Amino acid sequence: MFKGYKYLILILIAAGFFVYTFNLNNPLFWDDSDWIKENVFVHDFSHLKEIFTQNILSGFGLNSNYYRPLLLLSFAFNYVIHGIKPFGYHLLSNSFHVANGVLIFLLLAPVFRRRLPAFLAALLFLIHPLQTEAVTYVSGRGDPMSVFFILLALWLFLKSEFVMSDVTNWKNWRRWLSLGLLVLAILSRETAILFPALLIIFFTAFLSGDRFWKSIGKSLLKSLPYWGIAVVYGILRLTVLNFKNTLNFFSETNIYTQHLSYRLYTFGHALFEYFKLIFVPVGLHMERDIPLKTSFFQWPVPLAILIIALIILVLFIFYRGESQFPRREIPNPKSQISNKSQIQNSNDQNISNFEFRISNFRLWFFGWGWFFVAMLPVSGIVPINAIMYEHWLYLPLVGLFALAGFYLDKLLTLLRSKKAVFYYLLIAVLAAYLSFFAVTSIRRNIIWGSPIGFYEDILEYSPYSVRILNNLGNLYSEKGDIDNAARSYTRAIESPNGNVFAQPHYNLGNIYRDRGDIGKAIEEYKNAIKADSKFPFAYQNLAVIYASRGELSEAARMLEKV
Predict the structure, then answer these.
(1) What is the pTM of this model?
(2) Higher-confidence position of 493 and 327
(3) Omega within 30 of 0 (cis) for the link into 396
């Protein structure tokens, strides 16, 4: 199989690495400071126990919901080799992304039985600008890393299906290895727990020759061991690995956490924004302000619901059409091959001889089923501390790009047989569209290379973002531009939600302290504590100030708080 695909694979590798060559020297910043630069757990390999038993920010002295030990281990690998020099970090993240593009091609080509639609799907995945947030942001490596293990596990499952299709037969090493890869995926990013559901969708859409509901039943049986891993992980995260309320990122209840309907309405708005960015990826930035939606009738919630309803309607129409045309069964290679060596030697050939027709229903079911299942963790069903991020589309886009590749190929084939002029026109439009994606991705990579410019670009879209203003102040402070740093912290504090964040108060307090204005410094440290009573650094600095003034009882009280 690889021999027949090698030239297309080489093109995908070249395209992916070319687009992301422009990020290789981008500096580490934002969460990279907490997760890498100042996180002692990743500075050598002496903290393996802590990496696998504590949350991702423990090495920085904070508590977090995130448990991603394999991601931290990958940072430790980079840090031990080259410290905080950015080249190696970006090269590894880029490599995961390019490998994912190749795996998408290897997964789709045999089930599509055509290389072009699989190639188009993989190319879209590699160069679409929405992917830059997950790939170029080093702390975002959890997305491409976990998706790499997910796709590799799925590919090994696909290969095993063509060697032995018995539901209960687990003698094939590929099945066992795919289970191990699922564990690695989950330890890279929590959302990989969805793998069993994605496996059901893939098997039902492409690997089962039975009718739909029988295919679902068979896929459930095949996915049981993967569900077992997901359940065990879920139990661990809710018990011994529950560091900060795993199922709720909010320390206090609010209107968003209390009402599931409000969260789903708000997700509808975010979903509408996602669809716009998928087709026209302009105005990309990392801090989006999606207002809380408390009613079905608030725009654009009705439009988002209408889009979902249309997707379901088309799925139903395709389902009724498929019921009139039964699918042919997958040939079972095991029944046709007499010994183990023949099985191994003919494995690729069996995949290339895959013979039943892919119906519109099964393809629609795969594309949208994969998309919405992968979006479940950020749909608002479980309250999380954000509403919309571009990198949340990294895994869901696999399904949509599979749809796009398949139907683009069908359209090209139709036009080529009927209207040659329209065929060449479509090729020209498609080439221009893909070029636009590539150029936009390159521009995004370049913007990420200037942290101050990056934050200022975000502030054009979200001028009151406390996080961005605080991070911008930190950068000015690192460069010795204290006046601009103080202005950024002050703007953050004066923002509508400024008083619920401890960091800008704390950072502004440090500036007052360094300037000798101890009274204002104490006031800001107390404001930081008022915003977050569990913010340890403000207590530490207050303890130092009180001790230096001889107020030892107050200093001791602050240290006890720490």
Answers:
(1) 0.89
(2) 493
(3) no
